[in-house]
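testing teh design pipeline on a random one, pls ignore if ur not involved
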């Protein structure tokens, strides 16, 4: 099994990424999954048995995408932005703007504004047009890693400038909370935090780097998490710098979990 990691107060370990056993629908070349074992450094991994710890397991696939696969994804996103430009969501009730800019691809997209709050809808909040369809390369990543037969309906595209961050939150606007969320990081590194299902549960921190994939499933699906900060200038993938995070999601109910 490719690294199933649990957070807690345990010893530092050196996780070794192995090729996921779940790649069935596509060749590793098409989605650019490395075949070699990679020794990952600087990653705080914690002991599952740590008793005080509430935090759930998720799958962390560091450096899962090759450089060419990452470049291809950035090009796809560039295309998407031409018809579905980045917008800046606002907090429900207060209307405070997010520092992260967003857009979506897929049948549904996540949006938020003062009047309507957090929600999914089929149209871009500024242009009013349907969101562009999900690129085949993203669907291939979902099929390889989600372990979920139903296809993703939404892909939220987050763009972080050097000063953007995302406060601790749960993702629970989806009707189907049993399906996993698959996250792909591109560009500059970021400090990610994840805790348990209560806001006050202890948090662990992990550096998300370009090409890393996370699969949030099981109890980790409802874990509090966020981005503390972006490490500007740590990647040359995105021409003008910054960080992109893609999260593929099921929104409506789906049955038949694992592929
Ligand atoms: C844990 N995005 O879009 S990705 C989000 O880097 C979001 O832009 C962050 O949180 C980002 O909602 C974190 C990792 C991630 C994504 C979704 C999750 C972690 C998650 C959903 C549930 C639990
Ligand atoms: Fe989230």
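output:
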């Amino acid at each position: 099994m490719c690294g199933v990691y649990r957070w807690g107060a345990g010893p530092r370990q050196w996780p070794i990424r192995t090729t996921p056993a779940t790649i069935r629908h596509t060749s590793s070349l098409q989605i650019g999954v490395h075949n070699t074992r990679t020794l990952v450094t600087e990653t705080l991994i914690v002991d599952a048995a740590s008793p005080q710890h509430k935090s759930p397991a998720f799958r962390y696939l560091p450096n899962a995408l090759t450089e060419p696969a990452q470049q291809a994804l950035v090009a796809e996103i560039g295309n998407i932005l031409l018809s579905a430009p980045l917008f800046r969501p606002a907090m429900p009730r207060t209307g405070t703007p997010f520092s992260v800019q967003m857009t979506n691809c897929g049948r549904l997209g996540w949006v938020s504004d003062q009047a309507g709050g957090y929600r999914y809808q089929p149209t871009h909040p500024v242009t009013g047009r349907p969101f562009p369809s999900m690129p085949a390369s993203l669907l291939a990543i979902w099929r390889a890693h989600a372990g979920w037969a139903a296809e993703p309906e939404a892909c939220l595209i987050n763009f972080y400038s050097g000063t953007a961050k995302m406060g601790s939150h749960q993702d629970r606007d989806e009707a189907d909370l049993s399906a996993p969320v698959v996250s792909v990081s591109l560009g500059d590194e970021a400090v990610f935090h994840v805790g348990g299902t209560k806001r006050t549960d202890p948090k662990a921190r992990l550096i998300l780097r370009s090409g890393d994939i996370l699969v949030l499933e099981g109890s980790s699906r409802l874990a509090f998490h966020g981005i503390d900060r972006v490490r500007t200038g740590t990647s040359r993938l995105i021409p003008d710098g910054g960080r992109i995070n893609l999260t593929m999601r099921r929104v409506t109910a789906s049955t038949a979990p694992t592929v």
